[in-house]
Amino acid sequence: MKFSKATNYALHTMLFLVAAAPDKHIGVQQLAERQSVSPTYLSKILTKLVKAGMIESASGANGGYRLKRSWEDISFLDIIHAIEGTASLFDCDFNHGPDCLIQLVMVEAEDEMETYLKNKKMSDLARTVKLSKISL
Amino acid sequence: MKFSKATNYALHTMLFLVAAAPDKHIGVQQLAERQSVSPTYLSKILTKLVKAGMIESASGANGGYRLKRSWEDISFLDIIHAIEGTASLFDCDFNHGPDCLIQLVMVEAEDEMETYLKNKKMSDLARTVKLSKISL
DNA sequence: GCTATTATAGATATATAGTATCCCTAATGG
DNA sequence: CCATTAGGGATACTATATATCTATAATAGC
Ligand code: SF4
Ligand code: SF4
């Protein structure tokens, strides 16, 4: 079990956009170079973020991606869910009802992690990221 | 990102062994049938649990698997780690030092989940599982 | 309008990990 | 000795993630 690289790319891109000028569009070319990943691949990932309403895109010259106005409320969990989906980490094909101890524990465990990630929002990082000149 | 089926099988087997007679060996055949999985495949999974010191095996007639004496202290996290390994869920190829906000958050998030799973021990389930006649 | 630029989408290829089976060997109880 | 059972190697199959290529659509600037 691992977080996908796509999630990694998405997180880095979001963090970079937070640190960058919020009103200017930034091309996928530049974003991809920074992370040593193919532009077309990153594009597919960012399109998911667009559809999830976190960023907006503009075609044509001087186009690219930028944060939406409501970016401060976006959480790590939002980004992860946009890329990896929202399905439960633990799946059994059956549903043996409320007596199932395993699902009870596993779902609650996942919930612990998600609660933490839900409370880590872009706004929390905004100040820090400007100061520290993020590396990637 | 998903927990593997192997982890699912391991958890179910452990739970079953906890509910079963603790001194008697139980063959992989029986354990596999219960979960509709190939005996040889389940065998490989259970061997990992043996090597992790959670259960012990016996070859030959009337052989099989049974819990070790210290079973009560075994946690969900122990089982998961035995099957899936202990590597971090989030991996980037670089290490950009303590300024890295992303790793900070992701590692802490994983830690939240692991702490919960570490505190869910077999002993906590022992009483409940006997009462409720587990379904699988 | 024309052209350069840039995002989007489909098709396709490659890599990796998970899942599973087969078969042989080793150990052990009867 | 024989039946039974775990362990391990080799192999096959599957699913998913990763990545690239190409074509299309939209848009800014001239
Ligand atoms: S016992 Fe729980 S985890 Fe296991 S198959 Fe049934 S519902 Fe799923
Ligand atoms: S910024 Fe952090 S998460 Fe990103 S590559 Fe560097 S160390 Fe890894």
From TrEMBL, chains A, B:
Annotated protein name in UniProt: HTH-type transcriptional regulator
Taxonomic superkingdom: Bacteria
Pfam families xref list: Rrf2
Matches recorded under PANTHER family: RRF2 FAMILY PROTEIN, WINGED HELIX-TURN-HELIX TRANSCRIPTIONAL REGULATOR, RRF2 FAMILY
